[in-house]
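As a warm-up, study this chain.
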Amino acid sequence: MNTAALRAPAPATRTDSDIGGQLAFMIDNVISDEASRAMIAVGEHFGYRNDAPGMRMNQAMHWMADEAPMAQIFKVIGPLLPQELHGKKLQPRLSQRIDMYKYRKGDVFNRHIDGIWPGYGGPTVDVTSRAGAALFFQHGFSLDSVMHMGTEVTSDAPKYVARIDVLYDPIRGQFCQSHTSSTVACATVELVCDWQN
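Now compare it with the structure written out below.
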């Protein structure tokens, strides 16, 4: 895909969520509608598999994106991301692994903290998702990880989400997904590709 086609028609904007001192925010206008449709098309082309029953009721597929489109997405959201997280610097790139999730009518991803299911306690906030927008939050096994869920899809049109990890310097003693020897992902951007619920 042409990286110019990724650009949303308006500048990206950040809206913070109040969830009891934990870090979470929405970034609007991350990618264009055309780019959202292209990501959906990739998922549909390669196909989805049913995910583990009980933990999440949706379909998933995983792929490695080319560097250029990921660099374009980072160019848009990078200035809006925390430049440091727990004293560790933001890396100048995103993970190239994209975890695509397809939620059909009746599908849900129950309340959880990534790596811990089911989730218990913690403040909640409702987020209205829009195609081309991204939700940023911390994940992993730390006390700062954000409780979240994918609510039940009630329409016949599916919902598509692309999880992309944000990379920071490693944090000693923190259990986060390791991507290289020098970076870990302790935050996630969940990019909404289509949401018609």
